[in-house]
Amino acid sequence: MTPRAVHLNAGPVTAWAIGLLFGLLAGCTTPQKTPASPSLTRFEFERPQMGLPFRLVFYAAEANTATNVAEAVWARIAELNASLSDYEAESELSHLSRSSGSGRWVPLGPDLAAVLVTAQDVSRRSQGSFDVTVGPEVLLWRRARRQRELPAPEALAAARQATGWTHLELRRSSSGWEARLFQPLMRLDLGGIAKGYALDEAAEVFRQHQISRFLVSGGGDLVVGDPPPGQDGWRIQAGVFDAPNAPAPRFLSLRNVGLATSGDTFQRAEIGGVRYSHIVNPQTGLGLTDHSLVTVVAPTGMIADALSKVISVLGPDAGIDLARHYDADVFVLRQPGSVVEETLSPGFRRWLAPR
Asked: Is the model's pLDDT at 6 over the cut of 70?
C-alpha cells in the first residue's frame, strides 16, 4: 500500500482512546526534524492489526530506515495474530482449543507458550479472576449484549462447565512447552493478554533495529521505550472517566514500560436497567456491573494488559495487592453509587507528569 500522509497533533497521547482518535489509516506522517536532536526524525505509522487500530511513533535517522522498521513491526504483529487469535480458525490457539477433552498433550510454539505461562501465573495468583479459558462465557456474553438479554440459565451453566483455568495444564517437554485441555468444548480466549504481548514484541523489533525512542499502541494500550529527544518521558493522558464530577484526567510521563486501561466507557450494554461491561467475570460468566476505569503501568505490556482486566474484576484493594507481585502500579476510578472514588497504588505517583 502506498504510504498516506496523516497530520496528527503532536500533543499528549490519550491512553484510553488512542485507537479511536487516530482511526484506521495506514501510512506515516511527513518527517519532522527534532530541534533537540537534529540527526533524528519523528515518524508515525498507523495500520489496523489484530482487529484494532495500531500506531507507531518513533525516531529514526532517515525515511527508508523508518519504513523498513515499520514493515518489520507490522509483519511481527501479523505473525502473532495468526498464532494467538481465537477468530482465526487455523490459528495455533484455535487448533489447541479443538483438542479440548481429547486428553492429548499439544506442543506449543514459543509465542503461545509465553502467553499461556504468564496467563496461568496471573490466574493462580488471582484465584481464577483472570482466566484465558473463558472463551465459552465470552461468546455467550457477546450474544447477550447484542440481543440485550441475559443468557438462559442452562446456557450459562453449560458455558461455565467448559471454563476454568485449572482445566488447562502446561508442562515442559524436551522440545519445549506442551498444553492439555481437560474439559470438552473448551475455547481459549487471549483477548485480555495477547495484545499486550504483541506490543512487547513490537518493542523488541524496534530494539533489534537499534531504535530506542518509540511508542507503539494498540486499541488504547501501549508500550514505550526511551523518551523523545529532549524529553523526560512520553506524555500520556489517563483517567478519562465518563461520570459526572469525575476527577480531571491525569498526565503521565512514561519511559520503558507498558500501560493498559480497561473499563466500560466505550463497550457496555444495558440489560434490564442494569449497566454491564464487556469485561466478563470468569466466576459468574456475566459482564461486570462495576462502573470503573483501571489504568496499569507495568514493566511489560503483557503484564499491564492482564492486570488491567483482573483488577477490574477484583476491585482496587485486592488488585493493588496483586499488582505488587509484578512490580506494577495502578490507578482506579470507580463509581459504586453517586460518588466517584479514586484509588492510586503507592508507587503510581512516580509516573505523574508535572502539571
From this structure: no
